[in-house]
From TrEMBL:
Record gene name: dnaJ_3
Region (Disordered): 125-148
Protein name: Molecular chaperone DnaJ
A GO term for molecular function: unfolded protein binding
Biased composition (Gly residues): 125-144
Domain J residue range list: 3-68
Gene Ontology CC: cytoplasm
PANTHER family reported in the protein's UniProt record: DNAJ HOMOLOG 1, MITOCHONDRIAL-RELATED (PTHR43096)
Length: 313
C-alpha cells in the first residue's frame, strides 16, 4: 500500500481536522454506492479507508511516523538499517558481540539475536517457528490473540434510515458485506460488526469492523432522535378559516386537519411518521406552520389599514 499521507493527499504535519476532511472528500467521491460499475473507485475507497485507519488514530499515526508500523499497520522489524549479513558489513543499531557477551557468551550470535527479537512471538509449548503452531501473530498466547479492528464510514439518507434498507459496504480489508441500517441510529453513531476486522493468524479471533453511520443532511427534514421536524407552508385563508393541508413525510404527503385561526409557528405532531425505534415503533413528525401571505390582495390591504387606523384612535 502507498504511504497513507500520499493516499489522502495531506502533508505529514497535517492536523486531525485536515486529515478527516481529506478522507471524507475521498470517501464521498469513491463511495461504492456512487460508483457501482467502477472497480478502480472501489479500490481507491478501500485504500482511503486503510490510510485513514492509520492517520485517523493518533496512536497508530505516531507509530507510523516513527517507522514502527508500515502503511498497512503491520509492525516493522526495526534496528537492521545498514545490516548486510553476518559475513560482511556492520549493523547500525545492534552490537551483536556485545549482546552475546551480555548473555554470558552461551550459544551463537545468531541464536541470541533471534531469541531477543522474536522469543516472545513464538507460542510457549509450541517451541520455535518449526514447532507445532509455529509463529503466531499477537505475542504470547498468539493462538488466542485477536486481530486488529478496522474503521469504516457509511453515509445514508433519511429515506434509507426510515426504510431500514440493506446496503452493501466495502470494508478496508477488501471484503464487501451487506449492512442493515439499525433502528434508532443517529448521525455519528458507531456500531460494531464482530469478526469483520483483520485476521489474527491461523487460529486467532479476527478483529471487528467499527462502522460509523453518517446521516446525510436532508433538504426538508431535520432529525431529532427518531423524530423528524419540518416546516409546512400554509395559505392565509387556510390559517384563518382552518381546513385540510398536505404535510410531506418520508413516504409521501399526508392530509392534516388544521383548526381555524392558526398562527404561524404553531407545531403539530403527526404520530408514527418519524424514524424506526429500537422497539419496532416509529417516532413522530413535528410540522411547524409558516403562513404565506398573498402577493397582492386589495381587500386584505384595506382591512389591514382599517385595523391600523382603529388602533391609532
Amino acid at each position: 500500500m502507498r504511504n497513507p499521507y500520499d493516499v489522502l493527499g495531506v502533508p505529514k504535519g497535517a492536523s486531525e481536522a485536515d486529515i478527516k476532511r481529506a478522507f471524507r472528500k475521498l470517501a464521498k467521491a469513491y463511495h461504492p454506492d456512487r460508483n457501482k460499475d467502477d472497480a478502480r473507485a472501489k479500490d481507491r475507497f478501500a485504500e482511503a479507508n486503510s490510510a485513514y485507519e492509520i492517520l485517523g488514530d493518533a496512536g497508530k499515526r505516531a507509530q507510523f511516523d516513527r517507522g514502527e508500523i508500515d502503511a498497512e499497520g503491520k509492525p516493522r522489524a526495526t534496528g537492521f538499517e545498514g545490516f548486510s549479513g553476518f559475513g560482511g558489513g556492520r549493523a547500525n543499531s545492534f552490537d551483536f558481540e556485545g549482546m552475546a557477551r551480555s548473555r554470558g557468551g552461551g550459544g551463537g550470535i545468531g541464536e541470541d539475536i533471534f531469541s531477543h527479537l522474536f522469543g516472545e512471538a513464538f507460542r510457549a509449548g509450541g517451541a520455535g517457528p518449526g514447532g507445532p503452531g509455529g509463529f503466531q501473530r499477537g505475542g504470547p498466547g498468539g493462538a488466542h490473540a485477536k486481530g486488529d479492528d478496522v474503521q469504516a464510514e457509511l453515509s445514508v439518507t433519511l429515506e434509507q434510515v426510515g426504510a431500514e434498507e440493506k446496503l452493501r459496504l466495502a470494508l478496508p480489508t477488501g471484503r464487501e458485506v451487506d449492512v442493515v441500517i439499525p433502528r434508532g441510529v443517529v448521525d455519528g453513531q458507531t456500531i460494531r460488526l464482530r469478526g469483520l476486522g483483520h485476521p489474527a493468524g491461523l487460529r486467532g479471533e479476527p478483529g471487528d469492523a467499527l462502522l460509523t453511520i453518517r446521516v446525510l443532511p436532508h433538504p426538508r427534514f431535520k432529525q431529532e432522535g427518531t423524530d423528524l421536524r419540518t416546516s409546512v407552508e400554509v395559505p392565509l385563508e387556510d390559517a384563518v378559516l382552518g381546513g385540510s393541508i398536505r404535510v410531506p413525510t418520508l413516504t409521501g404527503a399526508v392530509e392534516m386537519r388544521m383548526p381555524p385561526m392558526t398562527s404561524s409557528g404553531r407545531t403539530f405532531r403527526l404520530r408514527g411518521k418519524g424514524l424506526p425505534k429500537k422497539d419496532g415503533t416509529r417516532g413522530d413528525l413535528l410540522a411547524t406552520t409558516a403562513i404565506v401571505l398573498p402577493e397582492a390582495d386589495a381587500a386584505l390591504s384595506e382591512y389591514a389599514r382599517s385595523k391600523r387606523a382603529a388602533k391609532a384612535e
